Amino acid sequence: MLSKDTLFALSLFPYLGFLWFLTRSGQTPRLALIGFYGTLVFVGVTIPAGIYAKMVYHDTLANIDWLHGGAEIFLTLSNILVVLGFRQAVISKQSSR
């Protein structure tokens, strides 16, 4: 059985493929695409935050509220950008009718 850490690392490859196809298609709203790439920033922040939580607090990231919340802000911002990007595209499409 694979550990959760291994599964987390392996999940990056399909996501990178997803980003590659989205970028290549040229059909994804720019702001939404930035949001999808922002998810990688979230991952990049979460990994060191998890290591810090383990080394300093001897606990998992999920149990250190201020650290976990700080990392989750990046995911929230990414999600907001995705939503705003697609919202902007829908409004633009509706106004061009």
Write a structural description.
This is DUF3593 domain-containing protein. Keywords: Membrane, Transmembrane, Transmembrane helix. It comes from Lyngbya aestuarii BL J. The chain has a domain of 64 residues. It has 3 helices and no strands. Helix 2 runs antiparallel to helix 3. The longest helix has 31 residues. It is elongated, with a radius of gyration of 17 Å. The model has no long low-confidence stretch (mean pLDDT 93).
List keywords for this structure.
97 residues, mainly alpha, 3 helices, 0% strand, transmembrane, DUF3593 domain-containing protein
Taking Cα atoms only, what radius of gyration do you get, to the nearest Å? Answer: 17 Å
List unreliable stretches of 5+ residues.
none
Instruction: Please count the beta strands (DSSP E, at least 2 residues each).
Output: 0
> What summary fits the major beta sheet?
none
Fraction of residues in helix: over 70%
Overall, the morphology is elongated
Q: What is the H-and-E element order?
A: HHH
Average pLDDT works out at 93
Sheet-strand content, in percent, reads under 5%
Number of helices: 3
From the N-terminal CA to the C-terminal CA, the straight-line distance is 53 Å
Structural class: mainly alpha
